Amino acid sequence: MSPEFVAFVNAVFVPVGLMLIMFSMGLTLALRDFGLVLTHPRMVIVGLGGQLIMLPILGLLIGALFGLSPELALGLFIISICPAGTTSNAITFVGRGNIALAVVLTALSSMVTVFSIPLLLSWAIPFFLAGGGAEVPALSVPGTMLQLLQITVAPIAVGMLVRRFAPNVADRMARWLRPTSLVVLIGVIALSVAVSLEMVLLNLAAAGPAIWTLNAAAIVAGVMLARALGADSRDSMTIGIEVGVQNATMAIFLTLTVLGSLPLAVTQNIYGVVMILNAFLLIRWFRRRLDRHEAVGHP
Asked: How many CA atoms lie within 13 Å of 223's alpha carbon, on the beta-carbon side?
């Protein structure tokens, strides 16, 4: 890959792709949607707790359990501190889950992580890399917060404004952008893999089991937490997806664009594929349960 192409991917394609994804989510949101926090607070709290607290802890534990190298362990931690993405909303829709809950959890986690990600990264980078001989990327906490505000919260807000003042336009744009967001995710992962293909292949055997374990554990833990609070099958599936399907585009943005590190992007590239496969296995399992319930007259 030429240096010019790599620079284009890092500086243009990944950030613009992420902004497009967040804008498309804003097109589906209205302020009244956040009333779900008041009407179903337990489901929102367990979803956010699983995403923002449990998942980073799992990322740390699994990286240590599998004895990953500092770069791979940090890359795994970075994906674990990212919010859910619009891909999780699309998968929830396909699985006949609770779309309203999925969208609100994605939006709230995206807003919270604008502030949590830079703080966690400022701790994690020296923790994983200092003293290990690996290059330690520079990170500005205020600068990273500003970047994330510009790249996530601002596009969401613009999308919500379009929905508020031009709802018909927002509906048409959302129908077009919903599949486009998945295409962008696939494109970002594909280009990132192309840029770091040799590293991905060299580390696939070492990182693959840990990545699969993190994703599977996140999905199962999300479902179990929801079940423990008495959630029905649709809400349980939704929370499992929200906890297990991260915004891989944001993770790649953080590693390639903010930190400028190809080795750290290896885990995000693999995770982006694994999370989609595992999520579709989950909805296949839940769809069978839902179909059986509906066949005997239960919701």
From this structure: 18
Provide the residue type at 55 as one letter. L
User: Do the Cβ atoms of 222 and 50 come closer than 8 Å?
Assistant: yes
- DSSP 8-state symbol, 97: -
Assess contact for 30 and 163: CB atoms under 8 A: yes
Whether the full predicted model's pTM is greater than 0.90, yes or no, is no
Domain ranges of the chain: 3-295
Contact 177, 156 (CB under 8 A): no
State the CATH architecture for 3-295: Up-down Bundle (1.20)
141, 245, 103, 109 alpha-carbon torsion, rounded to 10°: -20
Lowest mean pLDDT among 68-82, 131-145, 213-227, 229-243: 131-145
Beta-carbon count within 10 A of 131 CB: 10
Secondary structure (3-state) at 34: helix
